[in-house]
Amino acid sequence: MDTDVSLKPVSFWAQLNALMRKNLTFQRRNIRTNLGLIIIPLLLCLLLFSIQKLAAIIAVEPEIHCDCGECIDDESQESCDKKCSNVFDMIVGKSTYCPEPHPPQLPVLFQIPMTQFRATKSSSSPTSSNYNSGLPDNSCRKNGSCPVTILITGQNRTFAKNIGKNLFGSKTLENPSDSVNPLVVASEFMLGTTAFPPSTYYFEPAFMMLSPALYIIHPKCSSNISFPVSIKMGGLSLSQDVKCVDGLSLWRENSSVINKELSMGYQMGNPNRRIDEILAAYDFSNTNSNIFNVTIWHNETYKNIGPLLRISRASNAAANAYLQFFKGDNVKMLLEFVKEMPKGATKPGIINVSTLLSPLFFTWVIELLFPVMLTYLVQEKQNNMRMMMKMHGLGDLPYWIISYAYFLLLSASYMLCFSLFGSLIGIKIFTLNKYSLQFVFYFVCINLQISLAISSSALFSRVKTATVVGYLYVFISGLLGSSIFERFVEDASYPRELLEVMEIFPGFSLYRGFYELAQYSLRVESLGAPHVGWKDINNDKQGMRAVLIIMIVEWATLVLLAYYLDQVVSNGKGVRKHPLWFLSKFQGKTNINKQRQGYDILINMDKPDVAQEREIVEKLIQEPSKIQAVLCDNLRKVYPGSDGNPDKHAVRGLSLAISQRECFGMLGPNGAGKTSFINMMTGLSRPTSGTALVQGIDISKDMDKVHYLMGVCPQHDLTWDSLTGREHLLFYGRLKNLKGDLLMQAVDESLHSVNLLDKGVADKLVGQYSGGMKRRLSVAISLIGNPRVVYMDEPSTGLDPASRKKLWSVVQQAKKDRAVILTTHSMEEAEALCDRVGIFVDGYLQCIGSPLELKARYGGYFVLTVTTPSNEEEEVEKLVQQISSTAIRVYHLSGTQKFHLPKQGVRLSDIFREVEAAKRRLNIQAWGLSDATLEDVFIKVAKAANSLHDHNLDKKSD
User: Fold this and answer.
1) Domain-by-domain residue ranges, the chain?
2) For the structural domain made of 598-854, what CATH number should be given?
3) Are strands 648-658 and 697-698 parallel, antiparallel or unpaired?
4) Intra-chain end-to-end CA distance of the chain, in Å
5) What is the pTM of this model?
6) What topology does CATH give the domain 860-931?
7) How distant, in Å, are the alpha carbons of 829, 830, 838 from that of 834?
8) Which end of the chain has fewer CB atoms surrounding its CB within 10 Å, N or C?
């Protein structure tokens, strides 16, 4: 194997290839999840289609007889009348569904205020003489006798008032003897109605009301005057009574007074709060014998979605009044009727559910992918999977390219299935818009959504939080779009510039795009217009062009922002860069402070081995030509305190030199700083001060280069359950620049070395592995590719004795050509593997040296263990004092006692002789003598360090 392979930087394309192969395998194993995501819009379309079909089934065609009212020869009048008993439903049905080659001639009516809303001099009205003069007291509302009021103004008061008198007609009222045609009545008098105006004039609701709805407005009206009128409608002869209502014409000083009076009466346009309604108002302005100039206020209180069909009567009344003033009562310019165009028969319409739900439905469908992508990215960060790949040489750019490509492929498949299936089942928004326009819009939408998910992922560290926020974004953005944003779009008075500012919010821009597509489809469906294309979106009244421009600019901006936030906020939970790292003057500038920390140095001045290690580091720093595998110079890590707690000093002024082909063991109790040290060295966290060099490369400046040189076995296994052990090693091997046969050979050797090659274990999914098997795989991953420095954080945790021995042989073989830094709680493991050992307590390096040196330096005593009955413990203690007066009992339980005997002045022969002699008088059941172990050294050093720490705390408190 080429031992220098890992020293060569892995090319961008090699990283891209490694990650792409891994992701293809991973996504292929998760094909059900991916297909499930793609099928979601199909299910939603099916739901939409089912609702549409259900609406079609429920919709029952009305029983409309288009020949109703025209009885055939063999049909009795009685059966004909029975068939057409519901006149109102029949007329409405005929006007909607039956052919109308000759629509009826219907008169245009005034819109008369309802009795309870006619203008009076109420207490809420202004008291100024300019307002309400001439109006009756509001007591008339009790008996329904309030008149209908017309307001008049103009430059010539006398002239305007004279014309105003003619508005009600010039003839006197008389009860007719027979039924008359309403067209005749409308030509002679003011004919009005309190019924709501029709949407078309195929029929007039005023002629089909059960209660009186037709009125003649006249200044001299009596309660006994009534006009029976008849009209032919839909083949039927209809008769309706016309009652008389008083008409009141009042003068106002100018149009401003009229405006205010109308506004006060209508209560700011809220029909539920209207108080005093006026029939109409006229400003004759500068009208004279040569000029007819009039401004008309008409009553539009009862308008609906239909056209303004009643205004023509107010205009015709003014024209007739003007003509009659100058030419006499017999001169008229009549608007006798309004008639719709002929039409053919139509079928009952079925509600288009997709049109009703657009664009909210489509916005929600597209945005459903946002929380999925956001959760995927945050999960890789939370589980440290991205950081694991980064520590083995994967750069940021290849990671984001492959992630973006996966999201783009997923989103494109999602949208393609959605639009194609929607087109097949006939959803109008897909079928009635140009597919090229839709393609561009959907493509920009999904890219904007991907960039938004990537940039947002930098702000989250927990999957649960990201998931909740993601779905809240989908839900709230859709609701805000439909309830607020759409109203601004439809309000022509709202500035278009502010709309475009609102569309910077991605949810609103997506909503606006679907809103425009929905409007295009409605236009095509209702008006038969051609499909909307690219030339149509250039219309300033349309918003699609602005939406596309905004989304494209925002897409590019969010891509750059995502990369920036990843470097300075997230970086896969690794070391974050300076906010201005891209500027040359900030290149390599960090918060690392190389000044010595006096307190940390003084603490260890009484430890010669630690002080000597510090001196070695200082010399090596001054000689850069002598490259060490790892060189730490006064490395410190402090975690800021919170909630009033003090700062946590995890690593305090560590100076350490580790050479190539050396295995260095880090021992210490939990919380001593071992994992914090490895996190700093692997790029998971930044040192608070100090620096470290790996193969001569500063971790504070070129961590990306350091990643190429190292392998990591983390404390917790970081693997993908959907990949096999072999696939893991293939991926990490490619990241270490291994290719072809060299890669396959290295993978097989690694699997064999950790006993994963037998019985097909290597090709099983890691999700089926036991804890010990995953641990061995993590060790194999850290060693593949021959990295120069390997960090192993408690690698034997969870292994059985046989696997542990096998692992030790792997590490012993690996340290022949690389540096290994090992943390462990097993003293046996440290003695078997480590060339040197450092014991850490409370962030300090307490001692350093080989296991034998430490035992000799901190041991210096024999360990005597004696087991007797409990009642003989005192006799055994006296025996040991006879052997050595400085012996210390360190343990006793149920007759078993352990003593430390200093080696000075004690001979082994004396110990054996005294114990053998004591057997004659004592019941010594077992005894043993041993040298001090590394575990004894560890306990002794830890106790001494904790005592010193407690003493320093006491001095500080004093």
Assistant:
1) 11-44+353-571, 99-327, 598-854, 860-931
2) 3.40.50.300
3) unpaired
4) 63
5) 0.69
6) Alpha-Beta Plaits (3.30.70)
7) 8, 5, 10
8) C
